[in-house]
Design brief:
Pfam families: DUF4160 (PF13711)
Number of strands: 5
Protein name: DUF4160 domain-containing protein
InterPro entries: DUF4160
Shape: globular
Radius of gyration: 12 Å
Distance between the termini: 25 Å
Order of helices and strands: EEEEEHH
Strand content: 25-35%
Helix content: 25-40%
Number of helices: 2
Largest sheet: 5 strands, antiparallel
Length: 92
């Protein structure tokens, strides 16, 4: 899976086999390595993070810190999403 970046042992990545029709721009988070059912975070039009689920069971304190680190890099995520999938839509 395409890794966008890492924070310590946590991967931030896209899942390359996205559904059709494609879901709005989002990332997955997991510790150690990408997994199929990792924590999902929507990236909103204004660059904020909106938690879709925490399937990776990342502790709340760690998850909140990760989201604060991801938001300033939302433009990078959106750019990489467009490069990979050819289009961008938003959850909200």
């Amino acid at each position: 899976m395409p890794q966008i970046f890492k924070f310590g042992s946590y991967w931030v990545y896209f899942w390359a086999n996205e559904n059709s029709p494609r879901e709005p721009v989002h990332i997955h988070l997991s510790e150690g390595r990408p997994i199929a059912n990792g924590t999902k975070v929507w990236i909103t039009k204004n660059g904020k993070c909106s938690l879709a689920n925490n399937n990776s069971k990342i502790p709340e304190k760690v998850l909140n810190k990760l989201l604060r680190l991801i938001e300033p890099r939302s433009f990078e995520i959106i750019t990489k999403w467009k490069e990979m999938f050819g289009e961008v839509s938003y959850y909200c």
